[in-house]
Amino acid sequence: MAEEDTLSIREHGDGIVELQLGRSPVNALSAEFLMEFGTLITRLGTDDAVRAIIISSPFKVFSAGLDLKEAQDFDLDQQHAIVRGLNEGFLALYACPKPVVACVGGAAIAGGLFFVLASDRRVAMTKSSFGLAEVRVGADFPVGPLEIAKATLDADTLRRLMLTGQPIGPIAARNFGFIDIVAEDREDLMGYSLAEARKLAELPSIAYASIKQQLRGDTIARIRAAIEAGGNAPEGGWFNSQTKAAMQSMIDRG
């Protein structure tokens, strides 16, 4: 296993690579973690030896999104840094030309859900949960995650997740079309994820990358254009006058 700070790479043979998110204890998102992830996923996407990628986590929580205790004290520069990380890290995943399978053994909440939405196939477990809690913490969506959500979820699912901030379980997520397989336990979770990765790895790689670009190219172009127009540094910062109080309320509710 090769290690790169909070990210680990495990090879499963036949070009199948597992990228494990390892920012203990809940893969809380930081600007550095997201940018490091984006750099690594880009490198894997251009490595001819890699045929498919599995994104996993060893923790009970797949990714909880931002650390609210940390985020509520962000100054302007820190707000811009995390927006850049969210935009560029998840754009790198969404634009990756290789097949990507999300192996989700726990909660994927707020920014953490975009590891799932930006992947190609998504395998969950009966204990998984999914949500976009941004409205509950008083923050809107940076352009990268917003465009990925709009391209991935139908209008009713966007309404349900984004305007309530409430999580849903794996069966509902499968019914909404953004989870493909639900496993009973962690052994089956990895087994199904490996099986899906191997199926995708067997497909002609040039055609796969080309078709993925055909499907996602317009969304990728919109995100890149918005970033170039200043989307990584929203005027006045990411937060509004209610955000810090909303974050504290979420912390207090546990």
What does this structure look like?
This protein is an alpha/beta fold. It has one domain: Alpha-Beta Complex (2-enoyl-CoA Hydratase, Chain A, domain 1). Helices cover 47% and strands 16% of the residues. It has helices spanning 31-45, 68-71, 76-94, 114-117, 143-152, 155-162, 170-175, 186-201, 205-231, 243-253; strands at residues 2-4, 7-11, 16-21, 52-56, 61-63, 100-104, 107-109, 121-125, 129-131, 181-183. The chain has a 7-stranded mixed sheet, with helices on both faces. A 3-stranded parallel sheet has the order 5-7-9. Strand 2 and strand 3 (16-21) form a beta hairpin. Helix 1 (31-45) packs parallel to helix 3 (76-94), helix 3 runs parallel beside helix 5 and helix 5 (143-152) packs across helix 9 (205-231). The chain is globular and about 50 Å long. The mean pLDDT is 96.
What layout of secondary structure does this protein have?
Elements: E1 2-4, E2 7-11, E3 16-21, H1 31-45, E4 52-56, E5 61-63, H2 68-71, H3 76-94, E6 100-104, E7 107-109, H4 114-117, E8 121-125, E9 129-131, H5 143-152, H6 155-162, H7 170-175, E10 181-183, H8 186-201, H9 205-231, H10 243-253
Parallel strand pairs: 3-4, 4-6, 5-7, 6-8, 7-9, 8-10
Antiparallel strand pairs: 1-2, 2-3
Helix pairs in contact: 1-3, 3-5, 3-9, 5-9
